Each structure stands twice: as C-alpha cells, then as structure tokens.
Amino acid sequence: MALTDEAIDKIKEMILSGALQPGARLPKETELAQRLGLSRSSLREAVRALALINVLDVRQGHGTFVTSLEPGMLLEAITYAADFHRDDTVLHFFEMRRILEPAAAALAAERIGDGEVERLRHVVDDLAPDAEMDRLVANDLEFHRLVAAASGNPVLQSVAQALAAPTTRARIWRGLTQPGAATRTREQHAAILDAIAARRPDIARAWATVHVHGVEEWLRTALCGTAPRLGADEQ
C-alpha cells in the first residue's frame, strides 16, 4: 500500500506542477513507470485509485487522461461518502447546511442574474399549500439547488448538493408528519427569494438561516420522540 501511495503522490505532483494539465494524456504505462521510478503494478493501482475520485479518466483503447478537475467532478466523492451516513448523524448534515446555505443565499443576492431569479420564482410559485409530500421534497431540493448555483461558487454548489442526499429522508419525514410544512416552506422560500431578488445579501442570509434552522430544530424535537416517527413500512 505504501508503494501505491507513493505512486499516487508522484502523479499528483505532476498534475500540481503543471507537467500534466487538465485533459492531458498520461504517458504509456511502461514509460511513466520508468520516469517515476515505480513498478508497473504500483502505478496501475495508483491510476485506479485516482480514477475512482475523478482525477484520472481511463478510456479503454485510448489511454489514461487527466480529467477537467472541475470542482463538481472532484467533489462527487463527498456525495458517495455521504450516502453511507447513519440516521443518528443526520443532524450533523443539517448543521453543515445551516453554515453553507445562508452563505450561498448571500452570494446569490450579490451575483444572481435576472433569468435565475425568474427560475427561482417559478419554483416558489409551483409549490401549492396542499402539495403532496413527494412534490414538496422535490420542490425544496430544486429551490436550494438553484440558490447554490446562483452563488457563482462551484465549490460551494458542489458541497451543498452533496449535503442534499443525506437530508432527503428527513425532508420526507417532515413532509409526512409536520402540519403546514408545504405552506411554511413556500413562505420561507419566498422570503429568501425576495431578499435575493432585491440584492440584499444580509437579509437573504438571515432568512436562509431561519429556514434551515427551523427544519433542524423540528428534527431535533422529532428525534427526541415528541413528534410522530415514520413507521417501518415508510422508511
């Protein structure tokens, strides 16, 4: 394993130094192993490992290439890891949302374009007060995705998106058990949007904090046993 780690570090250094640019093809295996002073087996394992985290792209019959190294591609590993979270860690994900999403809303208020405002407005208007649970959850996810995209920060967008999957079940639970969840969600989304559209980052940040914190506090209460819990057939 140490030899594989050494091979990974050497390939990483080639990329960081600029010897290998995004999209560049790696030298043939024999040539690269000789250049780096590695065995072909160690190099092969390193390439597999770097391909798993989207640093390298192995194309059968064409060779191995450095990927675009775009944040969304590199941070996919976070989403993969988050899929393995346990139910008792979901509050940790909500705490992270409470840190990131107000920042995304504030940046969106500074950077959003008119077309993005209209798309957000459509999402807000599309949520009916009596929306079914699946419609509520889908609408909520889309609203937050668009706000993160409007932040103009692809790293923040990718991390925020990675946090969406581990909190989806909690969103479903809330939609099934909290009276007025759709109405409250629509009202708070509208308040966030109004602040973003008015280019008021502080107000957008405040409303996003209120919104995420409210769901987080409801979940804390629910996990303590004072709110209805999902039945085994609903989990």
Describe the structure.
Helix 6 packs parallel to helix 10, helix 7 (114-125) runs antiparallel to helix 8 and helix 8 runs antiparallel to helix 9 (154-177). The chain starts with a helix and ends in a 9-residue tail after the last helix. The protein has 235 residues and is mainly α. The chain is built from eleven helices and two strands. A hairpin with a 3-residue loop joins strand 1 (56-59) and strand 2. It has two domains: 2-69, Orthogonal Bundle (Arc Repressor Mutant, subunit A); 74-234, GntR ligand-binding domain-like (Four Helix Bundle (Hemerythrin (Met), subunit A)). Residues 226-235 have low confidence and may be disordered. It has helices spanning 2-17, 29-36, 40-52, 71-74, 76-82, 90-111, 114-125, 133-150, 154-177, 181-197, 201-226, and strands spanning 56-59, 63-66. The chain has a two-stranded antiparallel sheet with strand order 1-2.
